[in-house]
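Field reference: sequence -> structure
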Amino acid sequence: MEKVISGLVQFKSSSYEERKALFTELANGQSPEVLFITCADSRIDPNLVTQTEPGELFIIRNAGNIVPPHTRSAGGVTASIEYAVAVLGIKHIVVCGHSDCGAMKGALNTDALSDLPHVKEWLDHSRAAVEIVKAKHGQAAISELDAVTEQNVLLQLDHLRTHPAVAAKVGTGEIDMHGWVYNIEHGTVAAYDETKKRFVSIEERYAALIESSKAATA
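Structure field:
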């Protein structure tokens, strides 16, 4: 906790002062372009990985980067998605899983979660991902962790499409969906390619966008 408190003091005297104009602008509202849904894992820092500033990402974090399918019951994830899409007008939704995900390890062995009933129930939203991997690989053990992590990202994208606000915007082409997996050890991100039906490197998936960006700054 000492490090956290010390960081707060340092932030006010350094980082805040360096970006004072930005924070003055943000004090009056936000207009993020991207809804970023990722895991609550302490090793994941969305702004660090994407090199974005405060105000550029609207972030939802929970165990397993899960999006429950839409129901009539209100929930924090559902409400945040609705707000981001209907009020903030975000243009992109990213679901970002990560390597060595504890939630996905739990999804692979829910029997070990008997003392964590809420966690076990929450991870039922990832059950289909485990079943898909089991069907494809003949089993779903810890050796299939990476495959389950990828399938979970795709599953949560499917769940997102059940949310009316999202479905409407996707149907009119106003929102693009992205499935990513971040590798903690190597600092790389793989992105799902709808055409190739598999995860590829960020550089391959967004080659045209990267080249366009380079040309614009040249």
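Note: The longest strand covers residues 176-183.
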